[in-house]
Amino acid sequence: MRALQTLGLSLPLLATAFQAQAGTALETSRAMARELEAKLPQDRVEARVPLADWMWAKGLHAEALAQLDKVLGADPDQRNARELLAKWDASVLVLGARGRDAIADDVRAQPAAYLKQACALPPAARELALARVAAVAAPDALREAARAALVDRSPQLRATAAHVLRRAAPAAELRALVDRLVLDRDALVRTEAARTLVAAGEPDVVQPVLRALGSKHEAVRGNAAEALGMLGAFGLANAASAVEPLVAALAAPPVASAGAGIPSSGSLYVGRQVAYIRDYDVQIAQSASIADPIIDVMHEAVQLDAKVLGVTEMKVSVSVSSRICRALAKLTAQPLGDDPAAWLAWWSANGAAWKAAHPSASTAPNTTGPRTGA
Questions:
Q1: Distance from chain centroid for Cα 364
Q2: Which one of 39, 68, 201, 364 is most buried, by most CB atoms within 10 A?
């Protein structure tokens, strides 16, 4: 202390100097981080993971989490990003200042409320939160909370429920997840359900999705085709069995709308009514000064009668056929685009070789019969 005073320095002055130096170092690191980010390949989002690790080491914690938000936003299961989050142990930053132990009590007491809070977080923070839920919540309570959240009105909460099941017990709610996969209107929910079903490691989940491909409802058929493509892209072992049914669905005749071809008739009346005095009634009381007028109505109108003699209707669903083509592209890695004729020609030329190379493709159920059920 005396030496510092001799040099004319004090502890508060030194603290200010150190803070200024630290601030300058952070600004230098931020500038370097911007330069490094500008050099990253735009088509490889996973390349941001090493940059995030470097940022964290330099004290740029918020910036590092933002990089992982981009990675996990594109792929919530990206292994390197999740391992980096676990290494950082950044739960205190994103889950609350009380830290892991205090948060654990909240999770055990109210896992459903915690899921609602987690679904509003950015991707990296949400991954940390859901990993914490999976680690400390009672299994039965977590399953009950996730089961209720899967049918919640909020699509974000439904997607979060599928996400947490993937971290805690992916095989716990297979039927509910298949329902979300083919019936949910939200694409994010269907994607999260597909990821969780693949994580469950149950190849037979492809069977109910194939049956949904024969639904009488266009939206369900389209969702089922999309789901089969996602299951294959995410690595489901039995996904190859969907190729032949998808080709068959692509070749199936168009679905006629209900009531098509039933004749009907109708009429159109356009006119007006005008009131006028048609006559006078002279048989009135003797003291009356004028006869009683007789009012009548004159009609001026045109009426058209029409009858439908016949209807010829063909409904071609471009949306469903395009989704089938995209699913086939994911399952076969063939770059044939959205052209149904190209896929039918490819199957005609290569179908036998495909089934020989993929034995599971011969065990798929027939979905080209009458479309009944869902």
A1: 26
A2: 68
Nearest to 365 by CA among 265, 248, 194: 248
Long-range CB contacts for residues 170-175, cutoff 8 Å, separation at least 24: 170/196, 170/197, 170/199, 170/200, 170/201, 171/200, 171/201, 171/202, 172/143, 172/146, 173/143, 173/146, 173/147, 174/200, 174/202, 174/205
DSSP assignment letter at 52: H
Helix residue ranges per DSSP H, 150-280? 155-168, 174-183, 187-200, 206-212, 218-233, 243-251
- 8-state DSSP, 311: -
Q: Which two tokens stand for residue 330?
A: 């994911």
Return the C-alpha torsion angle 54, 57, 60, 64, nearest 10.
50
Q: Whole-angstrom Cα distance, residue 331 to residue 236?
A: 10
Per-residue pLDDT of the chain (374 residues; tens, 9 = 90+): 444 444 444 545 444 544 555 567 888 888 998 998 899 888 899 999 999 999 998 888 889 999 999 999 999 999 999 999 888 865 555 554 444 444 555 666 678 888 888 888 899 988 888 888 888 888 888 899 999 999 999 999 999 999 999 999 999 899 999 999 999 999 999 999 999 999 999 888 999 999 999 888 889 999 999 999 999 999 998 888 899 999 999 887 655 444 444 556 777 777 777 776 666 666 655 555 566 666 776 777 777 777 777 655 445 456 899 999 999 999 999 999 999 999 999 999 998 988 888 876 655 454 444 343 45
First to last CA, the chain: 82
Which residues contact residue 226 at a Cβ distance below 8 angstroms, ignoring those fewer than 6 apart? 190, 323, 326, 327
Where do the H-state alpha helices sit in 201-332?
A: 206-212, 218-233, 243-251, 318-332
Burial 60-90 (b: 16+ CB within 10 A, else e): beebbbebbbbbbeeebbbeebbebbeebeb
